[in-house]
Amino acid sequence: MTIQAVILAAGMGTRLARPNPKPLTELSDGRSIMHQQLHNLQEAFGKKLRLNVVVGFKMEQIMEHVPNASFIYNENYDQTNTSKSLLKALKNSPKGGVLWMNGDVVFDPEILKTLRPMMKQDQSFVTVDVSSVSDEEVKYTVDDHGFVDLLSKKVPHDAALGEAVGINYVSKKDKKSLIKRLEEVDEQDYFEGAIELTIKEDGIKWLPIDISQFYAVEIDFPEDLVRANASI
Predict the structure, then answer these.
(1) Exposure check for the chain: N or C terminus, fewer CB within 10 A?
(2) Within 13 A of 53's CA, how many CA atoms are on the CB side?
């Protein structure tokens, strides 16, 4: 079975204060963030991997950096957020479920092995870390059946069960609903806003997958890069 994967790499990454696109940030082992992600994906899925990268800011640099991927251009990268980059990727994807990740996540390759059974079952999911809950991160709660209920930065700290990691999967049957909700949300919304709408309006069941035993660091600030380098 072909594994469709998407890396969202269109943003400008201004908070890290680097001149190049954030996914090209070099790690302590000499790889870039994107090369670490690509290596993890190739190790997990091999020749079954079909990879698309959504580009925008300084796209030529990323395209030269990962020449064997396919690319989708978000021409409004400086005016939109991850919701619209994911929308472009899903609308350009063939039939079937799609695994996607933010282009600034440094993560343990074992995570993808953990996710394979849920992908094989074609179950939509959101990866989460229950060991940490920061006010600045996307947080989540669950309903009485254990599926994601709320998913946003607005979730109250005392109600949150953990943080979203930024690696997610939408099943074949749920993809149409997610595309519709991605079209509806504001241009500056994160894709999590559309996920919440699929839960509230369409009854979609997103399973939270706890990957706390592994490392997964979203690189927003220099201190995040330090943490990531200590983990790889």
Answers:
(1) N
(2) 28
